[in-house]
Amino acid sequence: MKLYKQSSNNTHRRDDDVINIHSGSGGSPYHSKTLKHARSLPRSINYIFREQRLLFILVGILIGSTFFILQPTLSRIAPNEASRFTTSVSNSNSNNHNQRTARTLGSQTGRVPVGIGRRRLRIVVTGGAGFVGSHLVDKLIDRGDEVIVIDNFFTGRKNNVVHHFGNPRFELIRHDVVEPILLEVDQIYHLACPASPVHYKYNPVKTIISLLISDFIHDCDIYKTNVMGTLNMLGLAKRVGARFLLTSTSEVYGDPLEHPQKETYWGNVNPIGERSCYDEGKRTAETLAMDYHRGADVEVRIARIFNTYGPRMCLDDGRVVSNFVAQAIRKLPMTVYGDGKQTRSFQYVSDLVNGLVALMEGEHVGPFNLGNPGEFSMLELAEVVKEVIDSSATIEFRPNTADDPHMRKPDISKAKELLNWEPKISLREGLPHMVSDFQNRILNEDEGKQA
Ligand SMILES: NC(=O)c1ccc[n+]([C@@H]2O[C@H](COP(=O)([O-])OP(=O)(O)OC[C@H]3O[C@@H](n4cnc5c(N)ncnc54)[C@H](O)[C@@H]3O)[C@@H](O)[C@H]2O)c1
């Protein structure tokens, strides 16, 4: 075995030096082809690294952009990817980590870079089998998210969400929110609450409890609570780092002394009246949400919803639009309480759902008024219902109920400016959609009675 070293005259080209090792005695120490190849390879690599740096950077950018464009598609293919980021809620030691990672996921919804798709979220909708909740569920499922509905069916119906049964991105849990529940989620829309006077007056204590707390203890650094309703959901939001949206109500303004109502108005609520379980319950729910926001860093959103109507409303729930429509279809006189001059504003449900989603995805806590500023007296509403359903429909006057507000009209300038939201559908456009749904259900009801 001989060792040969190719000497070089050019001392600066030491990298060109080649050591050839040959076995056997007869082989030539000089092998021109091997040498040429061995010399040229590092030289060209060197050249590329030195001279083509720009080309390398461009190729890198190209590969990076391709990855980011494909990434959202991949994340949809792997639906449980999000759960890799949110660890088990039962592991209390990892709560802070959960909170941070899940919050990052949640906050991505509002800040999606141009050209990059949105990560699929897992979202809880309490009261999702109800009127508003079921329309919200439709929207969230349509845009590709996973939705878990929690409902005890007090006023909600399985029929409202039956079209999602069998969809792997939809789950329905029969559960009362006054009991705690543990779920790994990115966002919580908290709607569960008996919302119509007929229902909340039926069980006022339960109504306030669904919104309220049974016991509330302040610990040195965190709130330790024995929770119910809103507090349960706020506790869940805190534990898993989910964003929490409360559906409050225009009833927090009571019988308002300011018109139209701005979010800065503190309201005029009778604390001991028949409606107080609802009004004061929602006011307290807002307080709790803000306390969790300030004290426990929960990302909170508060919507103050004004009268909303649309398909899937309860038929006989005592709310004025559903009352009038159902009565006109059944050929009964429309019941007007008082002189009928009290005013309300009516928003179509799809407008509300768009507002709720804009609020959840946005960066502002609120509260935000979500309503249609078009103002109608009860008598004007009755006229519109006559136009749409039956021009021969009649009106029956009855004594007004206690604490019925004289006027209600949202000032929505805050939502317009900060959420870029405003309602699009007028009463005359929206009402026919509700009427066809009511006609079908009343027909089915009547057929059921005859059978
Ligand atoms: N529709 C409106 O005009 C209006 C106006 C202001 C505020 N809101 C608020 O919006 C939310 C939804 O209202 P909606 O009109 O869809 O009412 P809804 O009665 O149709 O829906 C409420 C849902 O919550 C469920 N629910 C009630 N108590 C529950 C409990 N303890 N546990 C689990 N589920 C429970 C009901 O079964 C129902 O499915 C409510 O919080 C309501 O206060 C609605």
UniProtKB/TrEMBL annotation:
Compartments where located: Golgi apparatus, Golgi stack membrane
Segments of this protein annotated with the region Disordered: 1-35
Cofactor section: NAD(+)
Transmembrane residue ranges: 54-74
Domain of life: Eukaryota
Residues annotated as domain NAD(P)-binding: 125-434
Top-level class of the enzyme under EC nomenclature: lyase
Catalytic activity, EC: 4.1.1.35
Membrane topology: Single-pass type II membrane protein
Gene Ontology MF annotations: NAD+ binding; UDP-glucuronate decarboxylase activity
Entries under InterPro entries matching the protein: NAD(P)-bd_dom, NAD(P)-bd_dom_sf, UXS-like
GO CC terms, sorted: Golgi cisterna membrane
Keywords annotated in UniProt: Decarboxylase, Golgi apparatus, Lyase, Membrane, NAD, Transmembrane, Transmembrane helix
Main localization (coarse): Golgi
Polar residues: bias regions: 1-10
Pfam short name (any one): GDP_Man_Dehyd
Membership in a protein family: Belongs to the NAD(P)-dependent epimerase/dehydratase family. UDP-glucuronic acid decarboxylase subfamily.
Record function comment: Catalyzes the NAD-dependent decarboxylation of UDP-glucuronic acid to UDP-xylose. Necessary for the biosynthesis of the core tetrasaccharide in glycosaminoglycan biosynthesis.
UniProt protein name: UDP-glucuronate decarboxylase
Natural source organism: Acer yangbiense
Taxonomic lineage of the native organism: Eukaryota, Viridiplantae, Streptophyta, Embryophyta, Tracheophyta
